[in-house]
Amino acid sequence: MSQDATNQAEAVLAAIRFDANGLVPAVAQQHDSGEVLMLAWMNRAAVAETLATGRVCYFSRSRNALWRKGETSGQLQQLRELRVDCDGDTLLLLVDQAGVACHTGRRSCFYRAAREGALVEIAAPLVSPEALYGPGHSHG
Amino acid sequence: MSQDATNQAEAVLAAIRFDANGLVPAVAQQHDSGEVLMLAWMNRAAVAETLATGRVCYFSRSRNALWRKGETSGQLQQLRELRVDCDGDTLLLLVDQAGVACHTGRRSCFYRAAREGALVEIAAPLVSPEALYGPGHSHG
User: What is the DSSP letter of B15?
Assistant: First the structure.
C-alpha cells in the first residue's frame, strides 16, 4: 500500500465512520444484474487498497487480517464503484464478480429464504467448495 | 408481539447468528428494481415482528428501541422476502419501499460515490426532511 494510494483515498476515508473496532460493513452488489452478493467488513487499509487497486479487499474478522477476495479461490471482485451511505457507516460496493461470491459455491451468500415459517434454499452451488479451495480449505 | 408470531419465526430465528449485542445487519433492497436502499440492524424481536406483520421493523442503536420504519415519516417498507446469508450473520430484506428510504429525502441512503478521489453526490432529495419529519425531528 503506497502513501500515494492512501492520500488519493483520503477524501473518501474521511467520510467513513469506522466502528469501535475500526471496521465498516460493506455490501457487495453485482453492478449490472443488481444481485446482492455478500456482506463483509473493511478497515481503513482495506478501503484504501480497494480504491487503489480496483480489486476488492475486505478485512477478515475471523483471521484478523486483510482478505483479498478471490486470492485463494480465484473468484475476484473488480470494483466498479464504491458508495457511502448517509451516515457514513455503511459502504455499497458495485462490483463485477468473477464466478461465485459465496464460499459454498453459490453465486450469492443470500441463498436461504424465509417462506411459510421455514428457511428454504433457493439457489444451488454452481461449483463445489473443494474445487474452489481444495480439500480442507476455508473462505477466500 | 404475540407468542404465536414468535413461534412461527422460530425456524428463521434459529438460523440467525446475532452478534454480542444481540443484533444482525439487514440490507434492504427494493424487490423489483434491485436498488439497495439502506442497511440497518435488527434484534430478535425486530425480526419476529417483521415476519409476523410484513412491515419492516429494525432496532435503532441510537435510540435503543424497536424502529418501525416509516412510523414517523410514512415511508413504510413492506417485506416481500427475508433472506439469510451462508454464515447466518447478515439478512437481506427484499422490500417494497413507499416513497424514500433515506432520512435525507433520497430514495437510497447510498447517494455518495467515490469518483476520481472525491466523494460526489449522485442523487438529489425527492422530498425535504422537514416534509418527512417536521422541523426538528430525526429519522423514522
Answer: T
Which residues of chain B neighbour A39 with C-beta distances below 8 Å? 25, 27, 85, 90
| CB burial string B108-127: b at 16+ within 10 A, e below | bbbbbbbeeeebeeebebee
Distance from CA of B76 to the nearest CA of A (A): 18
CB contact under 8 A, A109 and B90: yes
**pLDDT in the model for residue B8:** 66
Residue of A nearest to B108 (CA): A85
**Residue B7, pLDDT above cutoff 60:** yes
Residue A21: its pLDDT value, please?
96
Beta carbons of B92 and A36 less than 8 Å apart: yes
Per-chain mean pLDDT for chain A? 92
